[in-house]
């Protein structure tokens, strides 16, 4: 009985040693498996990085965007009809709204009247030139007549002068009475006055012809080198008429592009102001993606590199293909309404993101349309330069 206890103790120790060895073996096995797993993961990552990871950059900070067309009226008037609503698809040239055309029609009538008046003034000016030419010819005849009167008055003056000289020579001998001498002197004075009057008539006729010639020259300057259609006043009136017609055409507002109506802000009866947006049109067939990549991701990215993208709305089953078409001129932080100010002592470096513009395949967009603002996941293939 005394030898039974040591034998039992040795068996327990042996069992404990065996259990310990088993645990050590198990631990080694798991450590070996963990090491193999780590090496396998490292190897897989290395292979992935060498053949894929280093040649691709991706981001989920990407959103759908588009060049939206702002529909703005080009005249101020009251909206009498609105033919579209938000979410409605429209085609280029489709009528969106109609404005009250009354003022435009009145302006057309006024412009047409101004054009008719301008044409009439041109024809009247042209006719005046002929009238002034005839007046110049008439003034020439008046000058000839006045000169003839001067010649007649000159003859009468010479006759009266000679008669007066004869009577004054006979007066000392008493052969001529005083009354006769007085009458001769009066006749001479009258002949002299008639001569001066005739000479003044010649000057007046010449001045009248000069004035008529000046009026003709001034009138010719208005029509010389012009026809009724090329007259400046007529052309200005035609321009006003075209402008009035253009305003009438602008009372019908049409879609500038194909797309979907968004942000409609006009109602029937509302007076719209020239240049104020009344709705937007989003061209869904021309949307693009703005992907915000970290600055270090863009070291090897260049314009033209191929891109694959997925949209959260469709999931990973729908893959879009596109290419890089440009980089933003500044980071998102620098373009913010209130840019970050880092000129302080508590400065912490923040990784910046630069928007990258990505164009998508139009056929894929037509098959799976996207909307502005949707989230996207984008991956750029750096191996294809």
Can you lay out the helices and strands and say which pair or pack?
Elements: H1 4-51, E1 56-65, E2 69-71, E3 77-82, E4 89-90, E5 95-99, H2 102-170, H3 178-223, H4 232-249, E6 252-254, E7 259-262, E8 271-272, E9 279-282, E10 288-294, E11 306-311, E12 315-327, E13 353-360, H5 362-367, E14 375-381
Antiparallel strand pairs: 1-10, 1-14, 2-9, 3-5, 3-8, 4-7, 5-6, 7-9, 10-13, 11-12, 11-14, 12-13
Helix pairs in contact: 2-3, 2-4
Rg result: 54 Å
Shape assignment: rod-shaped
Average pLDDT, all residues: 81
First-residue to last-residue Cα separation: 90 Å
Largest sheet: 6 strands, antiparallel, barrel
Physical arrangement of strands within the biggest beta sheet: 1-10-13-12-11-14
Taking pLDDT < 50 over at least 5 consecutive residues as the criterion, the unreliable ranges are none
**Which architecture name of the domain at 104-236 does CATH use?**
Orthogonal Bundle
Number of helices: 5
CATH topology value of the domain at 104-236: Helix Hairpins
At the first level of CATH, the class of the domain at 104-236 is Mainly Alpha
- Give me the secondary-structure category: alpha+beta
Strand content range: 15-25%
Estimate percent helicity.
Answer: 40-55%
SSE order? HEEEEEHHHEEEEEEEEHE
Secondary structure: number of strands:
14
């Amino acid at each position: 009985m005394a030898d039974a206890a040591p034998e039992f103790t040795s068996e327990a120790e042996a069992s404990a040693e065996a259990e310990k060895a088993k645990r050590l073996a198990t631990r080694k096995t798991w450590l070996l498996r963990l090491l193999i797993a780590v090496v396998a993961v490292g190897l897989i990552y290395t292979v992935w990085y060498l053949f894929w990871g280093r040649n691709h950059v991706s981001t989920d900070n990407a959103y759908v965007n588009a060049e939206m067309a702002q529909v703005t009226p080009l005249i101020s008037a009251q909206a009498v009809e609105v033919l579209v609503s938000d979410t409605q698809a429209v085609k280029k040239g489709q009528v969106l709204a109609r404005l009250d055309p009354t003022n435009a029609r009145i302006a057309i009538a006024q412009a047409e009247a101004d054009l008719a008046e301008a044409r009439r003034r041109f024809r009247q000016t042209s006719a005046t030139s002929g009238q002034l030419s005839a007046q110049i010819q008439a003034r020439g005849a008046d000058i000839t007549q006045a000169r003839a009167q001067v010649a007649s008055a000159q003859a009468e003056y010479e006759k009266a002068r000679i008669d007066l000289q004869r009577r004054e020579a006979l007066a000392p001998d008493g052969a001529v009475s005083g009354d006769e001498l007085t009458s001769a002197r009066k006749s001479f004075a009258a002949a002299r006055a008639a001569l001066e009057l005739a000479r003044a008539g010649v000057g007046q006729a010449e001045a009248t012809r000069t004035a008529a010639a000046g009026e003709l020259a001034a009138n010719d300057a208005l029509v010389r080198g012009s026809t009724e259609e090329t007259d400046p006043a007529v052309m200005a009136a035609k321009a006003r008429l075209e402008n009035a017609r253009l305003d009438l055409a602008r009372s019908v507002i049409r879609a500038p592009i194909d797309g979907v109506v968004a942000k409609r802000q006009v109602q029937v009866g509302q007076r719209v102001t020239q240049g104020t947006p009344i709705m937007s049109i989003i061209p869904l067939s021309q949307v693009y993606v703005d992907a915000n990549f970290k600055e270090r991701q863009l070291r090897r990215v260049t314009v033209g590199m191929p891109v694959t993208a997925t949209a959260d709305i469709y999931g990973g089953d729908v893959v879009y293909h596109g290419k890089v078409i440009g980089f933003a001129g500044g980071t998102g932080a620098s373009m913010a309404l209130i840019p970050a100010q880092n000129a302080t002592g508590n400065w912490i470096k923040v990784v910046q993101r630069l928007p990258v513009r990505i164009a998508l395949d139009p056929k894929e967009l037509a098959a799976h349309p996207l909307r502005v603002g949707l989230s996207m996941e984008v991956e750029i293939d750096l191996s294809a330069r």
